Amino acid sequence: MTQPCDVERALRASAPHALVDTLREVLTEAYGALSVQLLLADYGATALTPFDALGTPGAAIPVANSVEGRAFGSQEPRRQVRQGDVVEHHLPVSVRGERTGILTVRLPVERSVPRTVDALVHAADLLGHELLVAERDTDVYQRARRISRLTLAAEMQWQLLPARACSAAEYAIGAQLEPAYAIHGDNYDWASDAHELTLAVTDGMGTGVNASLLTHLAVNALRNARRAGIGLEDQAALADQALYAQYRGASYVSSLLLRFDLATGRVQAVDAGSPQLWRMRGRTVELIDLDPQMPLGMFEETHYVAKEFEVLPGDRLLIVSDGVYAAVSPQGEGYAQRALARALHASMLLPAATVPRAVLRDLAEYRAAESLDDSLVLCVDWFGKP
Question: How far apart, in Å, do the first and last CA atoms of the chain sit?
Fold first, then answer.
């Protein structure tokens, strides 16, 4: 019987582009797998696309109304009995909360026993970690995720993002950008250590590649300051100086910076522009009142001051860009007036990773016409120190 360490050893020795082929050989030999297929979530998180190392396109499976989609959404293995005494196992492939896709393994019914299923779940987990490393050296998985071509601006933005989800003992994060294949200037970033979590949501003015270049400079300036170990206010100030030095105030970036103390739940916030922060505590939804300050890069040497507030275990925070809260219905009512709170209530039982997608679906049905602006939603569920 193949041990988990054998699967891990085989995947680590595999060529980056051949991970699925390697795993298929191991699972076929060890458990009599009849087929092994990897389905990758597309950029909009609406479809699961079959991976083929040769680049042959396969029919995408919708996340909604499919067994594979239910496994992806719940992050729990799903079992599907096929004709001919065959059992299909749909296994989530994820890394620290980031949902990559689904591994589908077909087994003869007599081999589909709990011990084998546990081994397959572990193999899917190992595959997720190896995919993360392999994407540094090959484009085959990136190509498989695309159900249409990305614009150049969108390509630049997706490469800048950390992930679409992340989880730890104290928190869970989920984020989504729309339109997924043609985003311009909206972006998010996060980083954590043993003591704190830092979040940044940015919105560069303009459209297309110019907006993406502006956002790239802002995000990397913030990262550079954060990695130097300085405080949140100085991170904003240094990014502001970098942007002003390049654009002299002609272009600027709206930003919301948050620093969470993992031990206490105290939060520092620098509100430098348009992103809004909403909190759901129990069934109460409210806009967090922060101190609005100048966007990054608008003026030379702006002084930024952080405001503090507290999050409690069970709180859900939602950060939305102006493409979300400023959207209007056919009757002219802004989405933030009532609809945003309704969307939060409707999605209160969903995990943080799937809340942004649910809110953006609701937004698409609400607004009067197709938006020309990016829409960004980032959700944080706060659990506090165990």
Answer: 38
